[in-house]
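Minutes, project check-in

Agenda point 3 was the complex the collaborators sent over. CS summarized: two entities, 736 residues total, and the question is how they sit relative to each other. Sequences were read into the notes so everyone works from the same version.
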Amino acid sequence: MTVNQRKAQTRIERAAPIVADGPGEVLSRLSDMCELRGLDGLSADLLVLRDLAGPDLERLVAELETLEVTERLAQRAAGALLSNGGKRLRPLCVALAARVGTGFDDVALQLAVAVELVHNATLLHDDVIDLAPTRRGAPAARAEFGNAASIFAGDWLLIEALRRVRRAGVPGLLDELLETIAEMIRGESLQLENRGRLALDRQLYFEIAESKSATLFRWALRAGARAGGLGTAECRALGDYGTQLGVAFQIIDDLLDLTGERQATGKELFADLREGKLTLPLILALERQPDLRPALEEIASSAEAADVGSGVRRRIAEALVRTGAVRESRELAGYRIAAALECLEGLPAGDATAALALVARSTLMREG
Amino acid sequence: MTVNQRKAQTRIERAAPIVADGPGEVLSRLSDMCELRGLDGLSADLLVLRDLAGPDLERLVAELETLEVTERLAQRAAGALLSNGGKRLRPLCVALAARVGTGFDDVALQLAVAVELVHNATLLHDDVIDLAPTRRGAPAARAEFGNAASIFAGDWLLIEALRRVRRAGVPGLLDELLETIAEMIRGESLQLENRGRLALDRQLYFEIAESKSATLFRWALRAGARAGGLGTAECRALGDYGTQLGVAFQIIDDLLDLTGERQATGKELFADLREGKLTLPLILALERQPDLRPALEEIASSAEAADVGSGVRRRIAEALVRTGAVRESRELAGYRIAAALECLEGLPAGDATAALALVARSTLMREG
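CS then shared the predicted structure for the full assembly.
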């Protein structure tokens, strides 16, 4: 271990849980992680990214704090979630896309706030649906304020997001956001219909991932590009980058559900499966080893994580490795990242475009 | 009983439950009810209203059927609720306000659809929050399709409504609808905070009723007025009419919860109280007879309607009459209706304005 790697290791070990991080800190943490894995170039680049986009994210957080979140129960529930950190990856995408153009101005800031609000709105409704006890390592809004407050809080954030996009006044963006949200609901609904059946195949998986997860990334990139005054071709390229990044992000999310650390994700392992959702690595493992189904069903039907014997867990974990499901999932995410990087090729070279490339590459590294 | 009253009585008794009615039928039913109560003038006027606005409501229902409600679970859940009738009172308000101006054209139709979608979105979310088993006399969407589908269905209807208002392209109306929905959420949240505490007073009651119920009526009237090309003063007058009508409507809703017939409302008696919501008649009764509180608490804390003894129900029913709470509630609704009628005074005289007056007066008559 080099001196820098030891320092990075120490910083990682001593750091507070990721949920308490400021917006720039997420990037520092990711940089340390790359350092530790010997990815010195990526590590240094991430610190450059932090210096470039850190102030943008600080403005975002300051703006989020201006929401009147202290008044009513629904607003307090929304505020509790918003102030609890998160990676702020979607607003980061808005900021960087805007910086590919003329820069991160007040209009871009409002669009960055809007995308974060829509994302948090979906989390508030998802947590009610999944009866989730925690989110980002803290009690979920529904656990602290109740399901009703969490539902209204989601409704409110959605409306607040739309009001901000409306006020931003960029032609077409509000329509695109309305279509994006409708598409997200379609994806959520498709997932819901397949929930608990453990019958999802690859094709349906990607259809859900594109609708549910990738469309909002796509909008974030297009919104930033429009705010930055970029032309049609560049907006399309950045939007496509967003789609690819979003799908890769979802695949890595799936991998973290099976292999991530509780502290890093704020979630317990196999949480998706226990909610009846089949993730990509499990779909691939089932393709190759169909007799794994009873073990998966045992976890999917368990009321409590503790009800599942360690033997069952170990068997699935082994199968994920032995069948190559984990490796192939990571590869599939890698292809998406490669496709995302290709989308950037026609864009003006510069710090922001380089930063977007970095965001894509580091998505494969993330641990939370 | 006159011959016409006997005929009206027969029609009422033989009619199918209100949920299966076509849009014009609600008005025929109301007309029969007025006939039966000796309100012959009102009864005849309602048939005129049916002839005036019936075709508008037919167009509304045809347009609602064009929503792609067969595809996904969330859409099917939304479709099941939308096709289950309801009074269509908010779209009726849009249609009549438009007819005060230049008429009910395609733009007004889209706005009428939008207001009905927003209303149904709130019902879908409310039913999840209240764990309601039924809605409009049929199984609630959440009971048939699940809570998750019902939440997504509400989200989808909200977005679909906003898309239609956006496409209608009347300047300012989308902003007003976003503000209206935000205000509705504020009212819902205020109600939520006071739920189960049985500590609501008149002032808070009216604040909730104005936010939660009346703002959407206000928007419906303003939207119709704008689509009909009316000027600022007329839009304001119609909006104010909507606010007053909406509050009156909520008070009558409260009375029906205590005195209505299950068949007419599709709800069980004391349903609001069992959900921890204090209605206006109960607030007034408590003001005058504070020792009623334990009986109310018994109902509010009962898990099943059948758990409440008939003695407790009878005691509350008697107190509502003896304290004059029912009478005063009806009077307070009457004042609101009088105020609504006053708002109409400056408007162009004609069938549509007369019809709006009729809608206001018949609100006091409704039994479902």
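Noted in discussion: Residues 15-21 of chain A have pLDDT under 50 and may be disordered.
Follow-up: revisit at the next meeting once the mutant set is ready.
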